[in-house]
Backbone:
């Protein structure tokens, strides 16, 4: 995942904030969730969508009937998304096997070949 450094830094900075400060940095949108849950869920705006302005990361939660519970779930998802954004993978450097490893591999191949050559029909 190729993330620009400024977006990664903003995600790392946002992770250090408490819930209230993180919510202050987000655009919060409420909408009608729909689905199972009856009239309460289908007629009220219990779905929550949080968009973190600095990283443009957007998450939503609609599985609960309560707007407050959905806000808590969306906040947890936002933190998980920010954690993934701020992750810096280790650099991978190509390596080559050493002389000892090459010698051991060739010895093993030679022994295997000798073992297979003994499987043939007897030459007498």
Residues:
């Amino acid at each position: 995942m190729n993330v620009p450094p400024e977006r990664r830094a903003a995600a790392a900075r946002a992770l250090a904030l408490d819930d209230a400060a993180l919510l202050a940095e987000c655009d919060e949108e409420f909408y009608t969730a729909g689905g199972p849950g009856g009239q309460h869920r289908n007629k009220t705006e219990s779905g929550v969508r949080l968009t973190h302005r600095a990283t443009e990361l957007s998450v939503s939660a609609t599985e609960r009937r309560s707007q407050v519970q959905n806000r808590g779930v969306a906040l947890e998802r936002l933190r998980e998304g920010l954690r993934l954004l701020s992750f810096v993978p280790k650099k991978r450097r190509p390596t080559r096997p050493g002389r000892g490893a090459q010698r051991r591999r060739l010895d093993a191949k030679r022994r295997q070949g000798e073992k297979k050559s003994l499987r043939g029909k007897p030459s007498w």
Summary: The chain has a mean pLDDT of 90. Residues 5-86 form a domain with the Double Stranded RNA Binding Domain fold (CATH 3.30.160.20). DSSP finds five helices and three strands in the chain. The longest strand covers residues 26-31.
